[in-house]
Structure formats: structure tokens, C-alpha cells
Amino acid sequence: LGGHVRDAEWRPGDGLIVGVLGLSRPYVKVAFGAQTDQSVPRMKFLAQSGCDVNFNKRMVFSLDEGPDCDGIQMTVFDQRTVQAAWHGDPVIGTAEILIERDSGGTLVHEKVELKRNGSENSPGWLSVQYRVMNRDVVRDTLHFVGAHSLRDISNTMV
Fold first, then answer.
1. Cβ burial, residue 77 (10 Å; 0-12/13-18/19+)
2. H or E element that contains 135
């Protein structure tokens, strides 16, 4: 999970922190129904015109506990300290991907544009990779390790 993010929603004090220092601490929150997870903030300097970011986070969600829909919602925030006490962390952008439940365990790559408040100007994009694993296939592969190739076993684990 990574991508390129630009400016967050403007907050009082941004002139110094963002305008001069170019300080940005983007992180992403991901939700699938009631299941949520988030990355740690990645500190970036000189990011006045945006920055590449690798969130370096693996997230696992259960399709059994998920909603009827197949959408995964992602929201990228810019972590703030004092400013967040009053208004929370400002949003950089949001995106949603629809997962393919019948992708056969293959790794799927998608690039999605971030959106914010209906604006036509994208505040960035995310590159997402996911794999839908069948619990029975994983269990059978690990239970009968000798009957499967090393490639099959490693694909089951990753």
C-alpha cells in the first residue's frame, strides 16, 4: 500500500508547517465493513507539492465478517499534533476499491485516485495490492505440506 499524496484540508497554522517546512505525516485508515486497520504516519519534509509514500503495512480482513458489499474504503490523513486536538487530523483524500471475491488467490494490483469533498482535482493516488484467500485452501495446503510445491506453500503464506 503506497502512492503519491498532496496537500491535506487546510487548517490554521498550515502556513508555517506545510507552506514553509513542507512537513507532512500521511497515514491511511482502511475499513471493510466494521473491520478497520491503519498504518503508522510517515514523516516527509519538503512535501509542498506532494510526496511519494510507502505505508509498508499489510492488512488482513475476513470476508466472512465483512458486509454484503465488496468495497474497501481507504482514507488518507495528515497527522497533526496541536491542531488535531480541536479538529482531528485533516483528510488528504478517500478512495474505494471493489474486491473480486473470485480472483482465485492471485495477487491483484489496482491504482485508485483519491477524492476530497467532490473536488475534481485529485489530492493523489494509492497503489493497492490484495489477494482473496479461501480459508479451506489455506488449511488444506498447510495440513498436507508434503503434497504441495514450495511455490504453492509460499503463495498461501503471503
1. buried
2. helix 135-143
pTM: 0.77
Q: Nearest-CA neighbor of 133 among 58, 78, 55?
A: 58
Radius of gyration of the chain (CA): 19
- Structure-derived torsion over alpha carbons of residues 59, 63, 67, 73, reported in degrees to the nearest 10: 30
Q: What is the mean pLDDT of residues 4-29?
A: 76
> What tens digit of pLDDT does each residue of 39-89 get?
999 888 776 678 889 998 888 887 776 556 678 999 999 888 766 567 788
> What are the DSSP E strand ranges found in the chain?
2-5, 26-32, 35-38, 51-54, 71-78, 91-98, 108-113, 124-130
Query: In this structure, what DSSP letter does residue 107 have?
Result: -
